[in-house]
Design a protein that fits this description.
By secondary structure, the chain is α+β, with helices and mostly antiparallel strands. Among the domains are: about 1-170 and about 375-390, Nucleoside diphosphate kinase-like domain (Alpha-Beta Plaits, 2-Layer Sandwich), CATH 3.30.70.141; about 230-305, no CATH class. It is built from 16 helices and ten strands. The strands form three sheets. It has a four-stranded antiparallel sheet with strand order 2-3-1-6, sandwiched between helices. A hairpin with a 5-residue loop joins strand 4 (about 125-130) and strand 5. Helix 2 packs across helix 5 and helix 2 packs antiparallel against helix 8 (about 200-210).
């Protein structure tokens, strides 16, 4: 069966209610598809109108009244706020694989009055409430997805055409009270969460939702060796010096056992001074390899700029005290020292394999966001490369 692209749009309401993680978990774990790209959009009136015009279709197996209901929902809830002109946030996910559209739709579910439980995303997060006269009182689909492979192509190309003008790292989409000073911080959902299709990436995002912060940027990122070297560069010198005592002690213990005599404390210090820096360099190479898939020594320098083999999700969170709130939920670097209920306590394994990274200051957040370039439009690139153009 040939490969397909499928999309899922997380609605403004689902984003506002911090349901992103739960939705993403189900889509990855239950479809087994590859998450190929993800991008934040603040749709213009033009994009919303063009998208709404594609919804009512003779090829859609859903009832025409449901199609019209979805069309009206899109016009009312994805368009800029008519009172303030402020654009609304949506997140668009692209999945890739065999039979991708059908698999995605089976997890998303259809809109129906006779909801049976929590089998689908719409069962759990969507609502359709009618009054006694059969009129719609409230409707929230939670997510939007193409009903057929043909419509997926049409609608993905549409969103890709607007992905530069209406997508990326969003500005002026959150309203704050006078005097409030929001921050932005970077989060990386690390590669170990993507070893096989599972709910882990979404589960980690779900933990971050308790901060009450807002996602304004997201990207599926493959960190290059060059990016990893720059991103973790400040750690290198720390590793070269911080580990001297540990290395010296381990070297003394090993040598005493091997040779059968005691070494003086001064010798232990000398061993740490000699072996600490190269050991730190080795640990640093391990970090680069873990994040990019390659150690610098394994590749010619001319290949350091190429995207790595390991996937992560980069997110930009915005809000009051964003740096502190994210770090509090994440927990300390060492998972064994992380408090109950923190991400690293729940999902971390070692100091390096610890589920996620978060900037430790506004200054570092700006530096790290510049390296990862969350606004880079890989969404359009995936669509163009798959379909051979727009």
């Amino acid at each position: 069966m040939p490969q397909e692209l499928a999309y899922v749009i997380i609605t403004p309401y689902s984003l506002h209610k911090s349901r992103t993680g739960g939705i993403l978990s189900r889509l990855i774990a239950r479809t087994g598809l590859e998450l190929a790209a993800v991008r934040m959009f603040a749709p213009s009136a033009e994009l919303v109108k063009e998208y709404a015009d594609t919804i009512v279709s003779a090829n859609d197996p859903q009832d025409r009244k449901i199609q019209e209901l979805i069309c009206n929902y899109i016009l009312q809830n994805l368009s800029p706020d008519p009172r303030t002109g402020r654009r609304r946030r949506v997140m668009v996910l692209i999945f890739k694989g065999e039979d991708a559209v059908r698999k995605t739709r089976s997890v998303v579910g259809s809109i129906s009055l006779d909801r049976r439980g929590g089998e689908t995303i719409r069962d759990t997060y969507g609502d359709l409430i009618m009054d006694d006269n059969g009129q719609v009182r409230y409707f929230e689909p939670a997510v939007l997805a193409a009903p057929t492979s043909e419509e997926a192509v049409q609608k993905l190309k549409l969103w890709a055409r607007y992905s530069d003008s209406d997508g990326g790292v969003l500005e002026n989409v959150i309203q704050y009270q006078p005097g409030e000073k929001p921050q932005r911080t970077l989060v990386l959902i690390k590669p170990e969460n993507f070893r096989f299709p599972s709910g882990r990436p979404g589960n980690v995002i779900d933990f971050f939702s308790r901060t009450g912060l807002f996602i304004v940027g997201i990207k599926l990122h493959r960190m290059s060796v060059a990016q990893a070297l720059e991103f973790y560069g400040p750690v290198r010198e720390v590793l070269r010096t911080k580990l001297k005592d540990m290395v010296g002690n381990k070297a003394r213990t090993t040598l005493e056992k091997e040779f059968g005599f005691k070494l003086a404390p001064e010798t232990e210090k000398q061993l740490g001074d000699i072996l600490g820096p190269p050991f730190g360099d080795n640990q640093f190479e391990n970090i680069v390899k873990f994040m990019s898939g390659y150690a610098p020594s394994e590749l010619p320098q001319s290949d350091w700029q190429k995207p790595g083999t390991e996937r992560c999700i980069a997110l930009i969170y915005e809000g009051i005290e964003a740096v502190r709130k994210i770090r509090d939920v994440l927990g300390p670097t060492d998972p064994s020292k992380a408090p109950p209920g923190s991400i690293r306590r729940e999902f971390g394994q070692t100091v390096m394999v610890n589920a996620a990274h978060a900037s430790d200051s506004e200054e570092n957040a700006r530096r790290e966001m510049g390296i990862v370039n969350v606004g880079e439009n890989l969404f359009r690139k995936v669509v163009e490369e798959f379909y051979g153009g727009l």
